[in-house]
Amino acid sequence: xxxxxxxxxxxxxxxxxxxxxxxxxxxxxxxxxxxxxxxxxxxxxxxxxxxxxxxxxxxxxxxxxxxxxxxxxxxxxxxxxxxxxxxxxxxxxxxxxxxxxxxxxxxxxxxxxxxxxxxxxxxxxxxxxxxxxxxxxxxxxxxxxxxxxxxxxxxxxxxxxxxxxxxxxxxxxxxxxxxxxxxxxxxxxxxxx
Length: 193
Fold this sequence. Notes:
Radius of gyration: 19 Å
Largest sheet: none
Helix content: 55-70%
Number of helices: 11
Strand content: under 5%
Shape: globular
Mean pLDDT: 89
CATH architecture of the largest domain: Orthogonal Bundle
Low-confidence stretches: 1-19
Number of strands: 0
CATH class of the largest domain: Mainly Alpha
């Protein structure tokens, strides 16, 4: 009887807790107005080295905002934007950006480079975390269709140890062993998926 009652109480707490903390996409859209200047209308960046956020997994967005807010991940432009965000704001922003349509891949003008990138991705087992279609999931980012210049920057930052935050150990291990040619090919391949 006690076990059944405890189980029921736990289920009620989890259900009520998840309802109380459900994300509000509309509130996230309103809060994202400040993000448009850099990350673009509908989360699709038009600025060099600035990532597109549209279609990124909800948890990935949330974790990155938490890392920026805590100062674990550093960026001069992001720090003042995220400092005032509440946990609810972060949940809402994650839900909003996850609800947007991801950027469409641009036509591949260099399929030979993409083939080399596909080989590098396969050799480094990138799909093991980023999924077979590189759409990411949970706290793992979508890299398919991301800006090529941003992917280059991110891989270089992981390789040099400049970037920290979620996945740092796994990404540093992968990026450290990549040659410059492999980095260029991998970024090109992923951007054109």
